[in-house]
C-alpha cells in the first residue's frame, strides 16, 4: 500500500497514523518545556544581577555582613550600621586602654558600644589586641609577667561582656547581646603587629593561652584566629596558614580561620580565599570555617592596587560580595567584614596611604556610592549620614 507524506502526517487509505501523531505531540511538549525552562533561567540571572538585596536576603543571614570602624563606634555609628542591615561590627578591645578592670572610665567607650549594640541587636566581634601598659597595639606578651597581664585582660573582657557577664547583670533593662566570638590579635603575619619578626609558633602559643582563659569563663566561646593579609611587609598569607597548621595540636586551638584578602578586585580576592581553603581541605580540615574580617578599597591616597574612584569602590564592593555570597558554601565562609565604615583624617606626621580612605562614608559623614551598594546586599536602608570627623584646622 503506498503512503503519502502530507503536512507532517501520514495517510493510509485516508486515515491518520496514530503513532506519528503521538510522536509529534510529544515533541511539541518537549519544545514548550525547554522554552519555558530557558526563559526562567534567563529571568533568574537578570533578577540576580539587578536586585542584589534579594539575593543577599535569600542567602546568608544578617550576621554574615559586618563592618569595622577606625575607633570604638559610638551609638550613632551603631544606629547607622543597624539601619544599613549590617549584623556585625568588628571593634578593637585594646589592652592599653582597658588595663584596669575596676576603673569604670576605662570601660566607658566599650560600655556604650555594647549598650548600643544590644539595643540594635548588632553582634560585636572583639579584636583582643595589645598588652595593658604597652605602647598602643604593638606590644605582645613575651615574658611570664606580660603573659599574666594579658591573661587578666582577656579574662576581664569575657567576664564583663560575655555570656552571664557583669555588664549585663548591672544593666537589666538591656536584652543581653553578649560577646560569643573573640578574635585573637590582628595581622600577626606583619612585622608591624608582631615584632621583631613574624612567628607563627609564637602566635599560636598566644592563641593557646587566650583560648584557655576565655573558655574558663565561657566554655562555648568561639576562638577566631587573627586576620591575615597578603603583604610584602611580612609572611605571605598562605605561608603563614601553612606554618600554623604545622604546629603540633594546632587544630584543637581555634574555631575559625580569619583572612584579610585585600586585592585589586574580586578575582584576586577569590583566588586568595580559594588557595587557603584548598590547603585546609588538603590537610583534613574541611569543616573549620573561614571568616573575612577585613576587605575593602580606598577612594583616595597614593596610587596603589587598593585605590580607586568612588564609583570604582562601589563596583568592586558589589563584584566581591556577589562572588563571596555565591561561593560561601564551597569556602565554608561564615562572615564578611568591610573595612571600614568612615574615612578618617591623617594623623600628625602620618605619611599618606590608602587605609584612611577605605570608608563607605567620607570624613564629612556623607555616604559614598559603595554604601548604597553594600546596603543593596544586606537589605537595609541606605539613607542618612554620620557626623563629621574631619580634623578642624
Overview of this structure, please?
The protein is α/β, with parallel strands linked by helices. Helix content is 42%, strand content 13%. The protein has helices at residues 18-50, 52-58, 75-83, 104-120, 144-161, 166-170, 200-217, 237-245, 266-282, 310-331, 369-378; strands at 4-6, 9-12, 15-16, 65-68, 88-94, 123-129, 181-184, 222-225, 228-229, 257-260, 290-292, 333-339. Strands 8-7-6-5-4-12-11-10-9 form a 9-stranded parallel β-sheet, covered by helices on one side. The chain has a 3-stranded antiparallel β-sheet with strand order 1-2-3. The protein starts with a strand and ends in a 15-residue tail after the last helix. Residues 1-57 have low confidence and may be disordered.
Number of strands: 12
At the first level of CATH, the class of the largest domain is Alpha Beta
Please describe the biggest sheet, giving its number of strands, its sense, and whether it closes into a barrel: 9 strands, parallel
Rg for CA atoms: 27 Å
Order of helices and strands: EEEHHEHEHEHHEHEEHEHEHEH
Task: Indicate the topology.
Layout: E1 4-6, E2 9-12, E3 15-16, H1 18-50, H2 52-58, E4 65-68, H3 75-83, E5 88-94, H4 104-120, E6 123-129, H5 144-161, H6 166-170, E7 181-184, H7 200-217, E8 222-225, E9 228-229, H8 237-245, E10 257-260, H9 266-282, E11 290-292, H10 310-331, E12 333-339, H11 369-378
Briefly characterize the structure:
The chain has helices at residues 18-50, 52-58, 75-83, 104-120, 144-161, 166-170, 200-217, 237-245, 266-282, 310-331, 369-378; strands at residues 4-6, 9-12, 15-16, 65-68, 88-94, 123-129, 181-184, 222-225, 228-229, 257-260, 290-292, 333-339.
